[in-house]
Design a protein that fits this description.
mainly alpha, 10 helices
Length: 221
């Protein structure tokens, strides 16, 4: 016969308590740490910047940096993920606002326009961080792994985007989905943004308009 444990009527069940103020303070601390890391990685490079410098710039202790985000590879990963999401947390691709809007659009032109403007907004946050990651990947194994992972994710996402475009029936028949994905993958890269915006002085609006026009001309029948 199974025994049933009966709690006395006056015995209280302890539940974890989360203070809203503590949650806000933790979020503010994480934001300060990530901002400091971003500034130093861009200014000094990943290798030269130290966690101690990040802690000092964020006005927190070294242990707080480790507890809040982690060591340098974790800091750089968090910066890449948050630059993509536009928040202080990573957001899976399928949950991002622009992805749902792209999927909801009914024409290839509409999907391309939404994505071109979305990638323009992302690159303004991501390009400097992504280039810091690329440089760090040449000397740091953790960063090399992250660089390869992000590149694979981008390629996978672009193949999904190509399939979404194909479903509209408006893509060129002489281009495979893999070719469509590769074209978009190469032109939405941080390096492409840097060449036109940083090196040639294009505005973000010009860049978004160019991507929209170029992909429309290159990919649609």
């Amino acid at each position: 016969m199974n025994k049933v444990t009966v709690r006395p009527m006056d015995e209280k069940v302890k539940r974890p308590y989360r203070s809203p103020r503590r949650v806000e303070q933790a979020a503010a601390t994480r934001h300060a740490v990530l901002t400091a890391a971003r500034d130093l990685f861009i200014a000094k490079g990943y290798t030269a910047a130290t966690v101690a410098e990040i802690a000092e710039r964020a006005r927190v202790s070294l242990d707080t940096v480790y507890a809040t985000v982690g060591r340098k590879p974790a800091l750089l990963r968090a910066l890449v993920e948050t630059a993509i999401s536009g928040t202080d947390q990573a957001v899976p691709a399928e949950q991002r606002d622009y992805v749902t809007r792209v999927q909801a659009a009914t024409t290839a032109q509409g999907k391309i326009t939404i994505y071109a403007h979305a990638i323009t907004a992302i690159q303004q946050r991501m390009a400097p961080v992504f280039l810091a990651l690329r440089d760090a990947a040449t000397t740091d194994d953790d960063c090399a792994g992250l660089w390869a992972e992000i590149s694979r994710r981008r390629a996978t996402n672009m193949r999904a985007f190509a399939g979404d475009l194909r479903a509209t029936g408006e893509l060129r028949d002489d281009l495979s989905d893999n070719q469509v994905a590769d074209i978009i993958w190469s032109m939405n890269a941080a390096e492409y943004w840097v060449l036109l915006v940083r090196e040639r002085g294009w505005t973000p609006d010009q860049f978004a308009a160019w991507l929209t026009d170029a992909w429309t001309r290159l990919l649609l029948a």
